[in-house]
Amino acid sequence: MGDVLMECMEIFSQDGVQLKSAQATYVNYLNLVGTLYITEYANSNCKRCLEWKPNDVTVDSDVQDQEWAVVNTVQKRSRTFSESQPPDASTRPKFLKVNFNDIKSFKISNKNRQLTIFDGKSEVTCCFIFQHGDCDYLLSLMRGLLKTVSAKRDKHLYIVIHGDDPETAQLDKSFAELNIFQDSSHPSWWKLVKNFQERPYETTFETFSRVTDFVYRSPDQRDIDDDQRELLHRSLTEYASTHCQGDYEVIAKVPELPERKDYPRGRPLSTEQWKNLQNHEGKLEDVDQIKLMIFRGGVAPNLRYEVWKYLLDYFPWDSTQVERQKLLCEKNDEYYNMKLQWKRMTRVQEDNFSDFRERKNLIEKDVNRTDRTLDFYAGDNNPNLQLLYDILMTYVMYNFDLGYVQGMSDLLSPILHLLKNEVDAFWCFVGFMNKINSNFDIDQAGMKEQLQNLHTILGFIEPQLVNYLDKHDSGNMFFCFRWLLVWFKRELSFEDVMRLWEVLWSGLPCDNFHLLVCVAILETEKQALMENNYGFTEILKHINDLCGKLDVPAILVKAEGIFHQIKEAEHLTDNIRVILGLPLVGTQPSPEEVISISPDSPDEDPYEQVYNTMQHIIT
Amino acid sequence: MSYAYLFKYIIIGDTGVGKSCLLLQFTDKRFQPVHDLTIGVEFGARMITIDGKQIKLQIWDTAGQEAFRSITRSYYRGAAGALLVYDITRRETFNHLTTWLDDARQHSNSNMVIMLIGNKSDLESRREVKKEEGEAFAREHGLVFMETSAKTAANVEEAFINTAKEIYEKIQEGVFDINNEANGIKIGPQHSPTNPSLPGAGGAGGSQGSSCC
C-alpha cells in the first residue's frame, strides 16, 4: 500500500540545469548543474512538483562553492559529470522540491534561459539557468498544468491562480478566530515556537501576559464569565506573592541605585537678586551662587537680555562695567570686519569658491524655513530674516571649517529673538556654538558619540529599557537625534526652550547634563514604549510625537534626581564619570583647586558645596 | 482606521527640493512655504484605495543635507517605496541623484520601488533641468518618473499613488514577501489572520477592505 502512495510519474525532465539561487538550506548546491523534473504523485496531497537534483551529489561543496562563486562563468565552462541520464524514478534521491501549490508566480528571463520561482513568502524561492537551450517547453508545460495570467507590469512574469482550497481556508480561519496575536499569520506562530526555544523564560511570561490581556481587556467581545476571570486573577496574584522574591534571586542581580530624591525647582533669578550680587564696579560677587540659582530656576524673562551674555561667554563673569563697555566696542569692530569679508566678495570670487557658495545657498534656503510662524520672523521681506542670514553668513567667515550645518539656524533664532541686536546675537551664538559645535561635525562624529554616551548612561539607570531598545533595533538611539542636535528646540515651546537652555548653559550640576534630561524623558516613556511592544518605527514615531507634550520643570527635577543617584552609586563606572566630568576614582583635585573652590571641605565639588550653602535661598 | 496593507515610504533628495512640501500637499492637501526645515525624520500618513483595498501609506520625510546622510541611511531599511526628489530649477540637485540612488539601493531591500520626482514644475521660467533629462535618467536606472508641483498640487497624488500601485502589483506577483516587515509592508491587523497570502490576480479581494470600520 505504501508503495502505491509513493508512486511517482515523471512528466518532464531536462538536464544541464544550474541552480542559481535557492533558500538557505540548499546553499551547498548553488551553482551546481543538475536535472530539473516535473513529477506527479499518484496519491498524495502534493500532486505535482518541480524537482531538481544535482548531477553529482557526492561533490564536496565547501571548496567547490568558493571556486564557483569567484569564477561565476558556469555557463561557459564545460564540466563533465559522471551521471548523464535520469536514473530510475522510484529510487532517485530528490534534492530541491517545490510543490506546485506553493508556486505563487514564476518568471522567465535571460533570453528564456532562466526560470525564477516565487512563493510570495521569500524574495526568490529558487532560480534555474538552462545551459542547454531555452526553457520554452517547460514554460508551456507549466502554463498547461497551472492556471496562470501574465503580470501587467512584466509579460514574462506569470502569476499562478490557485483554486480555493477549503481545508486551508478553514485552518486559517480557526487560527484567526483565536486572535490572541494581533498579527497571527503563520510566521508569528513559528516565531513564538522559536522564541520558546531561545528565551523560554521571557516568552512564557510574554505569552501569559497576552492571555491576561485577552481575558481582561476584551471582555465585551468574548464570552468569559466572571468566575473564570476571578480564577485567573487569583492564580496570578498568588503566584506573584509566593514566588516572586525567591525566583528573581536566581537571575543575575543588578546592583541597586541609591534612592531617587526630589530636588525641587526654584524661582527664576530676579533683577533684584542680580543687582544685589554686583559690586559698585558692576562686577559679580558670587558667580557660583548665581550659576546655581540659574540652574535651579532659570532667569526672569526681563533679565535674560543681560544674563544670557554671561551664560554664553560673551561677557566674562568677572568683568567690570568699564571692561564690558570696552569689550562691546572691540567685538563690534571685529564683527563688522568679518561681515565685510563676505559682503565684499565679488561674483567671480564666489564662482571660484564652491565651498563658500554651497554654505551660502544653504543659509539662504534655511533662513526662510526657520521659525516663520513666530511674529518676529513672519511675513515676506521681514528684516529679521536678513539679520538671521547676516549672522549665519558671518559665522561662516568666523569658523569656515564648521561652516553652516542645518540646525544652526534653530539655535540662533531664540538668541536673536531675545537680543534683537545683530552684534550681540552673533557673539552669543558663537558662545553657544563653542559649547556644542561637535553636534555639527560633517561626519556627525560628535552626534554619534553623544548618542553612544546616552546609551551608556541610560543603561546604568534603566538597564531593562536599554535591553529592550537593543532588541528592537534602536540601540543606536537615533530616535533622540533631534533632541540632541538642537537641544529640544523642536520639542518645546519658545518659552520652554529658553528656560531649558539657560539652565543647561549654567553648566551645573555636571558636564553633559542634557544627556540626563534625555534619560529622564526616556524613563518617563519607558512604560509606553515597552508595554506597547514598540519596534524601531513606533519608537521613533512615539518620541517624535512627544513634541509639545514635555513638562520641562518636571523633567529637570527628575534629571537632577538621576544625577545624584549616579553620583552616589557604589558601582559607578569611570566610563560614566568621564562623560559627566566627575572626578575619576583615585584622582585627587589639584591643591590650587581645593584652595580656591572649597577650602573647608576638599571632598566636595563646587556644585555640592554651593548647593549646601544655598539651601536656605532656594526653598 | 482599518487597512489591508501598510506601505512604508521614504522621501529622499537634496535639501530644499520640496520633500516636506510634497508630503504636506499629499497628506493635508495644502502648501505651506514657511514649513520649518526638517531635522532627523518626520512622519506623515494617509489612507488610499487601490483595487478596492484600503492601503495606509506611512511616509518618512528625511533631512536632505549631506552631513545627515549617515543617519538617514538607517531609515531606508524596511521601506517599500522611495520618492527620490530633485528641484527642476536647481541643476545641482539633479546632478546629485546618482549618489542618492546608490545610497538608496545599497541600504534598502532590492524590491523597493523608486519613483523619481522633478519638483517645482510650476516654476517653468526658472527651469534648469529639462523634463527629457529626468525621463532619460529614470529610463536608464529603471525608475518611474514624474514632474510635480507641491505648490499647485500637480501630479502629487499621482506620484504617491502610482508608487503604491507598483508595490501592490509586486505583492500580487508574489515578488514582495508580505510577511516580512523588513520589506516595508505590513498587513492590516484585521486582515492578517484570515488572509496570509493574497488571492491571485486581485479578483475576489475588496470585500475585506470595506467590511471593517
Automatic annotation (TrEMBL), chain A:
Predominant subcellular localization, coarse grouping: cytoplasm
SUPFAM superfamilies from the UniProt entry: Ypt/Rab-GAP domain of gyp1p (SSF47923)
Record keywords, A-Z: Acetylation, Cytoplasm, GTPase activation, Phosphoprotein
Coiled coil spans: none
One example GO MF annotation: GTPase activator activity
Residue span(s) of domain Rab-GAP TBC: 298-508
Keyword Acetylation listed: yes
Signal peptide: none
Location of the protein in the cell: Cytoplasm
SMART domains, alphabetized: TBC
Entry annotated with the keyword Ribosomal protein: no
GO cellular component terms listed in the entry, alphabetical order: cytoplasm
InterPro entries reported for this sequence: Rab-GAP-TBC_dom, Rab-GAP_TBC_sf
Assembly and oligomerization: Interacts with non-phosphorylated form of RAB8A; phosphorylation of RAB8A at 'Thr-72' disrupts this interaction. Interacts with ARMC12.
Function: Acts as a GTPase activating protein for RAB7A. Does not act on RAB4, RAB5 or RAB6.
Name this polypeptide is given: TBC1 domain family member 15
Lineage of the organism: Eukaryota, Metazoa, Ecdysozoa, Arthropoda, Hexapoda
Automatic annotation (TrEMBL), chain B:
A Pfam family matched in the record: Ras
Domain of life, per lineage: Eukaryota
GO cellular component, one term: Golgi apparatus
PROSITE patterns assigned to the protein according to its UniProt record, in alphabetical order: RAB, RAS, RHO
Keyword Magnesium included in the entry's annotation: no
Chief place where the protein resides: membrane
Gene Ontology biological process: protein transport; vesicle-mediated transport
Gene3D superfamilies (alphabetical): P-loop containing nucleotide triphosphate hydrolases (3.40.50.300)
Topology within the bilayer: Lipid-anchor
Subcellular location: Endomembrane system; Golgi apparatus
Annotated spans, Disordered: 186-213
Gly residues bias (residue ranges): 200-213
Keywords: ER-Golgi transport, Golgi apparatus, GTP-binding, Lipoprotein, Membrane, Nucleotide-binding, Prenylation, Protein transport, Transport
Gene Ontology molecular function: any one: GTP binding
PANTHER family per record: DRAB11-RELATED (PTHR47979)
Family: Belongs to the small GTPase superfamily. Rab family.
The protein's name: Ras-related protein Rab-2A
Taxon lineage: Eukaryota, Metazoa, Ecdysozoa, Arthropoda, Hexapoda
